[in-house]
Here is the input.
Amino acid sequence: MYVNLFLDGIYMSWKNSFSGSNNIHLDHPPLMNDGRNFLTIHPDNQLNQEILVENKIMSNNDYRTYLTNNSEKIITNNQLESCSMSKCFRDFKKPEHNGQNQPYFFASAFDNTTPYGYVASDMKSIYLSREQLQSRKVAPTLKIDN
Here is the structure.
């Protein structure tokens, strides 16, 4: 049994892949023996020098000020860069949903809707089934006015 891929017009399988790569899963990082998930082409020292030149940083105090003033931007950039390089995530966009971010109120114990962000679990399903059974024991009362 061979695993086959069609990538950019190239038919690829284990039997005709002579590149030595064991990465046949396009959505996952390559399997590395030393635990690395990704690597960059540019060394960190070169990147650091580019930052110093672009921002005209001449002293340690200038560098500290730059890092302090741009910390949120640097954190966001690092998160996006690491996610895009590891290829573990297809999109790093926030999902679009309509309206405000308000909690969803279920109509009853029998309401099976799954709103945005709902996660099913075994404990939750046991709890909900117990609540559904308990709610069936209660008979509704009707008040009749003459």
Observations:
- The CA atoms of residues 8 and 26 lie 12 Å apart.
